[in-house]
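User: Modeling request: complex.
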Amino acid sequence: MKVKPKIGVVSCSGECCSLGTVSRVATRMVLEDLAFGETVTICLPLFLAGDSGERMFAEKFPTVAVDGCHKLCAKKAIEKYSGETAASVDVEKLLDSWGEKPPASRRELNINDQAQSYRVAREIAREIEAVKEALNG
Amino acid sequence: MSQEYMEATIDKFILRVRKGLRYSADHVWVKEENRQCVVGLTDYAQRRGGDIVFLEFPSADGLVKAGEPVARYETIKAALEVTAPFDCDMVDCNRALEEMPELVNEDPYGAGWVARVRPADPESVEALLPPERYFELMKEEAEGVAV
Amino acid sequence: MPENPILIIPCSGIGKPFGTISRDATFRVVDELRKGRADTNCLSLLVMGDEEATRQIRESTCIAVDGCPLACARKNIEIAGGEIAAYFRVMDLLRENRSLRPRQVTFLDEDGLKLAEMLADKIASKVDELGGGQP
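Assistant: Request completed. Predicted assembly structure:
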């Protein structure tokens, strides 16, 4: 655990469709690779259940919401319980803009789906960079 | 900062050190009760180790030397030990932890107590770290700075 | 919609392998083992008060699948007004299978997949016991 302030990333849980899986996997790719050491995942179920650590972090530090679809659960949850998000990614919109379809399976991602998730992860990482730049003035 | 605890916030985690106890450098807390001591894992130790899935007691009685385990526990990350902070005799152990090891994670200073021991040398408790010193040690370790 | 619909809600916690296992097991049941007889929905939709999700949870028999003792699925279903007919916890299954050590969170490793498969079988049996999808 490092002390320098990090950026929180909260991903939707998205069981209803594969976009939730992409959202989750992309967020993990950011945490483990693209922004390793710079981000903290806010567990959305824990956040919704009222865990004070998750909500307190989102109140104090900038948070990026990653949502699978237009319902924007993660973004709305943060806004309801902690405050404005610093940035927001809508995976459904992103895939639409690329002319891509979501994965066929919500459980297993094939190699193309994983590549797609990585592409989404890079977008999330870009948003995180923008938040960092804004913070550093 | 509450009356009962010193608190440090690292990322989204609030790490608590209970006042009025003594601590070993191995992240074991000690509470003196008459001539016996109750021991357990600190909040930092349980957080760092992760969810405890199994916990067992090597022995319910007998002598345990400083650094030897009073309990062994497993998380999905590792097999770990709650080590005796000083030479002591085992008096009792918290058998509830064999069925519900998560009590250590949920309430490390309360229901998650691990064992009751009798120090071989009554002076050994005073030799342990006071809460303020342990708090600094914990923060340095948690923040990744060399002690 | 079948009679007596069963709704399986996993915790899907993103920080630990347990969350991925709960999610994987749920999908195995609703998409494969008991397809058409059980369903799932987003935990966050339920809590955020989505009308359709709220109606679904009140009209269904709920099974909560949690990863760890923090019990987010159970707590959130209760917050959303659902009643839990059955409850599973990944950590309990891990205690029954001591040799397994799931470590990966993003994509399950071999031990994680084994646990998910075992859990899915248990949930599927419970769906049968609760009369899921039966007329």
